[in-house]
Amino acid sequence: MIKFPHTLICSLTALSLLKPFSGYSQTAPPELTITRFSGPSITPSPACLAVAPTGEVYVGVDMMGSLGKDPGKGRILKLVDTDNDGKMDQHTEFAMVDNPRGIIVMGNQVFVLHTTFSSETGKATGMALVVFEDKDGDGKADGPPKPLIEHLSNTKYIQERGTDHATNGIRMGIDGWIYIAVGDFGFHDATDRSGKKLTMLGGGIIRVRPDGTEMEVFTHGTRNVYDVAIDPYMNVFTRENTNDGGGWNVRFSHHIQSGEFGYPVLFQHFTDEILPALADLGGGSGTGALFMSEPNWPEKYNNVPMMADWGRSMLYIHRVKPDGATFTQKEEDFIALPQITDLDVDGSGRLYLSAWDGAGYSGSDNIGFVVRAVPNNWTYKAFPDLAKASVEELVNLLKSPSAVARLNASQELLQRGDQQGLAATLRIASDAQQPLYARVAGLYTYAQGAGKNGIPALLELTKDPSVKEHALRALADRKGLLADVPEQPFLDALQDPSPRVHAAAIVGLGRLDRMEAATALLQTKVPASFVAPATDKEGPHATPNAAIVLPHLAVRALVALNAVDATVSAINGPNATLALWALRYIHDEKAVNGLIAAYKQSKDEKLKKQILTTLARLYKKEDTYDASWWWGTRPDSHGPYYKAVLWEGSPVIEKFMKKEAANPARLALFRDLDARHRMEIAAFAPLKKAEPVAAKEPKVDLEKIKSKKGQVGKSSIEDVLLAVKQLKGDPAKGKILFTNQGCVACHSLSRSEKMKGPFMGQIGSIMNRERIAESILKPNASISQGFATYTITAKGNKTYVGFITEETANKVVMRDITGEVYTVNAADILSRKEMKTSMMPTGLANALSYEEFASLVSFLEKQKK
What we know:
Blueprint: H1 21-24, E1 32-38, E2 46-51, E3 57-62, E4 74-80, E5 90-95, E6 98-106, E7 109-117, E8 124-133, E9 146-150, H2 155-160, E10 167-172, E11 178-182, E12 187-192, E13 197-200, E14 203-208, E15 216-222, E16 229-230, E17 236-241, E18 249-255, E19 279-283, E20 286-292, E21 304-309, E22 314-323, E23 326-336, E24 340-345, E25 351-355, E26 369-375, H3 391-397, H4 403-416, H5 419-430, H6 436-450, H7 455-461, H8 468-475, H9 488-493, H10 499-512, H11 518-521, H12 546-561, H13 564-569, H14 576-583, H15 589-601, H16 605-618, E27 620-622, E28 644-646, H17 650-660, H18 667-677, H19 702-707, H20 717-726, H21 731-740, H22 763-766, H23 769-777, E29 790-794, E30 798-807, E31 811-815, E32 821-825, E33 829-834, H24 850-861
Antiparallel strand pairs: 1-26, 2-3, 3-4, 4-5, 6-7, 7-8, 8-9, 9-12, 10-11, 11-14, 12-13, 14-15, 16-17, 17-18, 18-19, 20-21, 21-22, 22-23, 24-25, 25-26, 27-28, 29-30, 29-33, 30-31, 31-32
Helix pairs in contact: 3-4, 3-5, 4-6, 5-6, 6-8, 7-8, 8-10, 10-12, 12-14, 14-16, 15-16, 20-23, 20-24, 21-24
């Protein structure tokens, strides 16, 4: 049994508080049996895990946590359950790595994503995807790892902050790519094994081949995505967070190759241009992810994305239903686990889950555990040793209803390079009697193994409606083979009645790089839902919109083709809307001149306004990213750029727009365009308005409040927390205390109020009762993300202390403990230091009785907007 110390009860749900671990299984479905697999003596601070198909569990121990900066505290452990009773019997230290963030086990290879450090300075040098080998099977890596990608996160921010927004989970799809979840630190000059370099401003998903080559961006524009779930048909799902201080909401997303999700510069005010998430699920913090597809699991818990949420201490199931080329979803509670970090399943159907269990933002050497979950009627059936399996056995496994079996058999067949086995994979792909999952597995395995020689067979498979989507995807999958792939099947597929086939065709045409495809792409219909949000209103960035998927992908393909001539030619035609949408991202002088010429030719006022909007967007562009600027937990999200700069086409646009604005009756339009797109043309500056009278806020003497001593102040934290557990409290009284105890000085309860410190309007959906109580009593123990206290010194002998409410490349906006707001020019900043203590003083609840404190907690517990 696990006994939880009183100091950790903030990390437990009310149901499991101060109970042995067996009590915690009561929060899981009754169809499952959960056992403790390993405890903190072996697996403290488990940040990630992966399971071999044969059941060996590899756990990434990370005693640095997300904010630690000292190396030498991480390792990969290999755990074995020799008698299959759900408890670890043997363990070995597989390898020493700092900050492990993702693991994949494939044969005798173990892929690991982790932070790298300089042996000379002890400072972080970035992140790397590496591969270890254990050819002798002794449970230890044979030697140092082979790097596959280096510099896979922004070194500047890892050194300053830690890895909390860095690059995270990794998972392999049946297509053989390793998909990598990139947090919004982004990266600069990431380098793969071939020497290819890649830079990404912000977060998303990238992918790479298992040999470390062909690195490329898959999707872009997410915030802090931690892991990916990939289904048997190559649908990719994530549970990432966003929203920048307005509650740290979680979004569930379906990622379609080349898609742009818009964070941070498009996802609020330019939502017409992005792929929206499928849902905004409220406050939380998404972590590990898995698509469960194993035949010995109960039907109602199978073939679903399972997504962990560290902030809510819950593993969720998302019921996804097809909706055009994408999905809709419905979230369900599944398994409660304190600060769950990751999950994976083996070939026998054993699900393993790791729990951070309150180990803190800098890790712990004595907290954290791993559990095993299996269906109640589960019996152990050994997964075969694939290295000893015959080709025939591997081919049969490729038809297995187990996704784990299919993936591992596929990779083993590819490792062997056996031609008979390769021919068998094509037969599976072509066999209409086989289940679709088997045909898809056969198709992608064949495409990987056959390479260029497989193109004719894949072209033939594009004629089969059941696998057409995947044949098109496989044909356009490897850029090194595209010269030999004809575009006609993709052009034909643009007329296919299936939106999924249509989407695959659009993405493929963007990858084929054939300019002749631009005219066909421009015929993609744009729905009525393509509407920009009203001025200064946040648009629907998390509302499913299947109708926007195809035109969105078509725009991304046109931009990839740099289709200047085709888009300009379409401005005055029936496909003008899509053409102008694409032109927003094509900073080319020919595009600018073409837009101006089309404007002069047109007599359609609506079209002319759209052209002006496009020119306003093109007036500036994003600066070339050099890794010295960009990130913050509260970045400027107005858009459309983060660090906007002028370029060669800017003077032409400015001259034209000033001329058109010469008529005073039209000046208001240009002022609106200037404000929305932040052109900062002096002639379009807004009229000065009288400053609104600021609403008076209550002045609270926090020092006086915290100096009072009552029942809470005279008791130990443990006693107070136990009392809160027993006392219900009165939320109505708690609301009054929220004001009287000074909480209103730094916290808002409604989104209509001015945002101050951490938003309390949904705290009850993020923290349970005990965690709310402890965060009041111990404000320095868990400082809310984005609200760390900074001291900034600036030119003119000025010093500012507070938390950062907004940050751009040019300025930092801060709020101090009194609520005052200060704007500091970035060029004036001499030093910036993050403090280790919260701005919230310790002791604000000291004067309260147990009953009063319970009432305050009860009030906050009910805030779940």
